Predict the 3D structure of the following.
Amino acid sequence: MDYFEVGKIVNTVGVKGEIKVFPTTDDMRRFDLLDEITIEWPDGRRETRPVEKVRYHRNLVMLRLNGVNDAEAAAKFKGSTIVVSREQALPLGEGEFYVPDLIGMAVISDEGRELGVLSDVLMTGANDVYVVKQPGVKEILIPAIEQCILNVDLENKTMTVHLLEGLL
């Protein structure tokens, strides 16, 4: 089963056991939809915990989990991530993709040149930026905009792009 990261647990909040989460999802309000969260530990183990309360402060999410009643209990979650299954993921709009589906995709220019493999997606605010790597060549940063991303073929794991002047 595929899991997508939606947040990183960065710290505790107060003495009553809340955890502070840095959201890594486009819509941080998606935490309102979760009755429980799946925590993924650095070693790959997963644990599911019911959510008692969700609140927001600036660009962070504060969660109170069932059975976590003090700062010491909450501290053990620091450094882990919150993941959701593909079934729990928010639905996509037209032309949108889940980042894990893009990673590893072969990137080809509209002129037929193999540019490398999509290795990362940078979320910049204005638009995402695709990081394309090829061994021995400087990475290429391609803005995820209509003028550049011509076709994404999930089935064949390929992306066709138009390189604007100055991108190489």
Summary: The chain has a mean pLDDT of 91. The chain has two helices and twelve strands.
